């Protein structure tokens, strides 16, 4: 037992010495580097450009964002649980994060389906993304690569989470009684936090309409 303890002490001392003295003497100027190329491949870049067109000035789009930049473990019982929870997200990332244009607070997570066959690593990553987004209350949108050419559909998907509708440019009227409609936010239920249009004559008229119906002059989808 004493011999094992001595060996452990010697090893710890060796690694401490190596880290403090030997590694610091390395001259990093001796190493050469090169650019890896574009941050996004062709299909990822096309989808990114479609997102920019859909969001406009209402949000900021970041790509390949490390999960640890967006999330932090919450309600862990002790430091061990915190490190385990943090380790789960440490090596993973989000495809795209749409942030508030002013505060850069994450508003929507978007995962791009590139059409490739699912392998175990991709399935595990998707399960992790679904779990952490649900836990953190972050909306998650799964988008197909075809949306790179359907900006109008992207706008409709995003409008429930980002204020793409400008009240001074679009006025809606109740289809039941003709009164002006107002925007409200759901305070409970499955769609808590989502915006929707409701008749200004409530409770006399209870007509409501999805907020994420965005009329795009450039593209009308059937």
Q: What layout of secondary structure does this protein have?
A:
Blueprint: H1 2-22, H2 42-55, E1 59-66, H3 67-70, H4 79-90, E2 93-100, E3 106-113, H5 120-136, E4 140-144, H6 151-158, E5 181-185, E6 195-199, E7 208-210
Parallel strand pairs: 3-4
Antiparallel strand pairs: 1-2, 2-3, 5-6, 6-7
Plain-language structure description:
The chain has helices at 2-22, 42-55, 67-70, 79-90, 120-136, 151-158, and strands spanning 59-66, 93-100, 106-113, 140-144, 181-185, 195-199, 208-210. The protein is an alpha+beta fold. The protein has two domains: 42-158, Trna Endonuclease, Chain: A, domain 1 (3-Layer(aba) Sandwich); 167-214. The strands form two sheets. A four-stranded mixed beta sheet has the order 1-2-3-4, with helices on both faces. Helix 2 packs across helix 6 (151-158). The protein starts with a helix and ends in a 12-residue tail after the last strand. The model is unreliable at 214-222 (pLDDT under 50).
